[in-house]
Specification:
The structure is a single chain. The protein has 249 residues and is α+β, with helices and mostly antiparallel strands. It has one domain: 4-Layer Sandwich (Deoxyribonuclease I, Chain A), CATH 3.60.10. The strands form 2 sheets. Strands 3-4-5-2-1-13-12 form a 7-stranded mixed β-sheet, covered by helices on one side. It has a 6-stranded mixed β-sheet with strand order 6-7-8-9-11-10.
Length: 249
C-alpha cells in the first residue's frame, strides 16, 4: 500500500514558504516525523503558489485554469520529483489556491509529464461553492483535491460534496476515485448513517483537525463491490490551523 495525505495549509497563518518547507521535510525524511514512508499523493488546500516549481519545456497542455508543475523535493543527485496540478484561486497572493501532488520517477531530474491525466469537475450551476475539484488519474483511479465552501451550513455543504462525489464517480457511478481535502463539515453532519451520500464512503481519523472540529478527511468509492479502500487514517505532525491527515491506499 502507498501513503497519501491531505493538508489545508491555512494561508492566513504564518508564511507559505515555511509550510512548504515543513511539507518538504516529511517528504525527505518521513521516518523523522513518524511517517511510514514518503507520501505518493498529497492533496493541498490554501497553498498559494508553489515555491521552486516549474513547468518543463515540452509538456502537454492541462485543462483550462490548471497549471502543471514539476517540483523536486530532493537534490540533483537524489531527486524526489512530484507532478503538481495547481489551481490558482483568490485575490492578491492566491491564498486559497489548491493542488494535488503525485510522486513520479524523475525524468531528466524533473517529474514525469502527467498533464494528460489531469481531470477537473466543476460544481453544477447554482450549487453552493464555486471551486472545482482537481484530480490526476493514476492507474484505474483518479485522485482529487477538494476545498468545500465554508460558512454555508451542513445542508449546503452536503449538497456541494454530493455533487462533487457524483462527478468523480462518473455517469454510471462506478469510476474509481479518492477525494482528499477540507470538507468544512464534520462527518456526522455531512454523512448521517440514515442518509448516506450515494457512491461515497468516508474515511476519517475520528479526531479534530481544526480545533475540535473534524473537517479534513477522504471519501472514495461507496459500494462494497467497487471501492477504493483506504486504511490507517490518522492525523500526522503537520500543522497549520488545520492538522494534516494521512491514509494508506
Amino acid at each position: 500500500m502507498s501513503l497519501m495525505l491531505t493538508w489545508n495549509m491555512q494561508g492566513g497563518q504564518g508564511s507559505y514558504d515555511s509550510k512548504w518547507q515543513a511539507l518538504a521535510g516529511r517528504i525527505q525524511r518521513p521516518a523523522q516525523y513518524d511517517l511510514p514512508e514518503q507520501p505518493a499523493i498529497v492533496f493541498l488546500q490554501e497553498c498559494s503558489d508553489v515555491p521552486g516549481a516549474e513547468t518543463p519545456q515540452g509538456w502537454g497542455q492541462p485543462p483550462a485554469n490548471i497549471t502543471a508543475l514539476s517540483k523536486n523535493f530532493g537534490t540533483s543527485s537524489r531527486p524526489l520529483t512530484y507532478f503538481i496540478a495547481h489551481r490558482r484561486w483568490g485575490q492578491g497572493n492566491n491564498r486559497v489556491s489548491y493542488a494535488v501532488l503525485v510522486q513520479t520517477d524523475p525524468v531528466n531530474g524533473q517529474a514525469a509529464d502527467l498533464t494528460g491525466s489531469v481531470v477537473v469537475h466543476g460544481p453544477p450551476q447554482g450549487a453552493p461553492g464555486t471551486r472545482p475539484i482537481v484530480g490526476v488519474t493514476m492507474g484505474t483511479a483518479t485522485y482529487y483535491t477538494m476545498h468545500a465552501p465554508s460558512g454555508v451550513g451542513a445542508a449546503l455543504s452536503r449538497t456541494y460534496v454530493s455533487d462533487m462525489i457524483a462527478a468523480a464517480a462518473g455517469a454510471q457511478g462506478t469510476d474509481d476515485y479518492v477525494i482528499g481535502g477540507d470538507f468544512n463539515c464534520q462527518p456526522g453532519d455531512l454523512y448521517p448513517q440514515a442518509n448516506p451520500i450515494p457512491h461515497g464512503h468516508l474515511y476519517e481519523s475520528g479526531e479534530g483537525t481544526c480545533g475540535v472540529r473534524n473537517l479534513d478527511y477522504f471519501t472514495a468509492n461507496g459500494s462494497a463491490a467497487n471501492r477504493t479502500a483506504l486504511a490507517q487514517v490518522t492525523r500526522i505532525n503537520l500543522i497549520s490551523d488545520h492538522i494534516a491527515v494521512s491514509a494508506h491506499y
